[in-house]
Target: Pimeloyl-ACP methyl ester carboxylesterase
Amino acid sequence: MRDLLSTSDVGEPPLVPGHSYGAIVATAYASRFPVRGVIATDQTLTVTSLPAEIAEGLRGPGHRVL
Model:
């Protein structure tokens, strides 16, 4: 998605929608690249069962486990 946006004539960061697992992917994308916003529908709040690289991207830098 980043490559597509960098070669297009989009004037502002995208609004990224996602449903279920796609919402997790949208949130991970937003943690790494500028976005206008994320529309997350039915996104699980538990990321421990996800592969470590996805979970790390969702939690972001400086995440503390309580």
User: Anything to note?
Assistant: The two ends are 33 Å apart (CA to CA). The longest strand covers residues 15-19. The chain has a mean pLDDT of 80.
